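Rotation project, supervised by the postdoc (A.L.). Task for the rotation student: set up a whole-complex structure prediction and record inputs and outputs verbatim in this book. Inputs entered:
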Amino acid sequence: MPITGAARLFAILGDPIAPVRSPALWNAEFTRLGLDAAFVPMEVRAADFAAAWAGLAATRNLDGMVLTMPHKQAVLPFLDLLGPHARLAGAVNTVRRLPDGRLEGDMFDGEGFVAGLRAAGQEPAGQRVLQLGCGGAGRAIAFALARAGAAELLLSDTAPGRAEALAEAITAAFPACRAAAGLPDPAGQGLVVNATPLGLRAGDPLPFDPGRLSAGQVVADVIPNPERTPLLDAAAAKGCDMVSGRAMFEGQARLAAAFLGVAGWGG
Amino acid sequence: MPITGAARLFAILGDPIAPVRSPALWNAEFTRLGLDAAFVPMEVRAADFAAAWAGLAATRNLDGMVLTMPHKQAVLPFLDLLGPHARLAGAVNTVRRLPDGRLEGDMFDGEGFVAGLRAAGQEPAGQRVLQLGCGGAGRAIAFALARAGAAELLLSDTAPGRAEALAEAITAAFPACRAAAGLPDPAGQGLVVNATPLGLRAGDPLPFDPGRLSAGQVVADVIPNPERTPLLDAAAAKGCDMVSGRAMFEGQARLAAAFLGVAGWGG
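Outputs recorded:
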């Protein structure tokens, strides 16, 4: 199926952009579905976001935009409508152009992560969770874990106050989940989640000390590429179960495709 | 060959965009060459050009932009360097990002048109030519016909003064070509060129009265889609030889690909 002049466009904006797996997955689906559509990667630096966004908003055949690091919060001022997950998370990963031209954003990182956990056979309900990283994706994941019934949520972030603010917001929205900020120590946790960008670039430090992991714990990573991160290697060496970023990524993509009106996804 | 996160991008900007044939041709070449690259159509209105351009300039993996109506002159203020054909024509159809980030534009409509004529077995050298339309593409075609050795160039445009200005510029650059503005009457001409957008949209009027055509004349149209325009139908009915916009389009694409550094184009 060639991409013609009548193609509908979708784009993912991020920096770095080369590691993102969405274009390959989406374009393979478009081919399978026989759609004249393209999903293209756009490498846009944080400082250039506003200019890039104005250009995409002016591109009339661009039906949807996906945001990845570092743009998930930067996009908020440019949207006309926010969906329920985006309002809670304060971040957006998917934007659609409505028939009247308005732009509506929502956030599927959290629901995609939980869907990925469950697809990998790991149920978050009742779990004690340590989560590293409380940025755009981290907020969404924490809310989704609380919504899914996690019993405890220990949040850790290197930015001062960030984990505390998220713990308060979780407690307000989901009082049944005991949320608190704390040190990045996995000892005693059932599920450990890396929601930081560490692992995306070769040579990144680990987000926490894996020496404190023990057999039987579940370690889930949000990094989709490489699928096997140094953190997951270290977890496996400790006898932990692993859930890779691919599981989250596939869950996200399915939810984003539904939001963007791509019928028949995953067929 | 899927489009991945590491894909290099190319875009064509225009309005209307659905009829452009470039995306299908370029993406087929990318597939044949095994390149991780995409050439996407972007529907951008004239009033939105500056915003759209700023966004594309900020997209770091976008290596080249192709301009079609109505943007071939609007892009001029946004470029750092102009090639020789663009300087003469006062219009640009292809822009490349240099390694230092500067944007260089050039214009291949004229040379592509002449290459298409020759590929169709029609030699412009020594010809008497009537050309309708003296806009961005029209200027480029007139200069290329003069450079190719056309003996006479009768130029016609509905915008007051436009044909006169182009005739003066042709005379200054190519004194051996007798260029003048005149009425759109094909009688007595060897080659008749439609360089107006008429024929792009169903229901457009013809650019001149085909009742004045006679057998043996050559009628060339710049409209690439539909390939067989109502003007070419009328010319065929009069016994004229025809050169469709596809010939020009293929010549343009080959020249643009070389400018954009796509090696191996066209096998």
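Student's summary: The radius of gyration of chain B is 18 Å.
Supervisor addendum: The longest helix of chain B spans residues 245-259.
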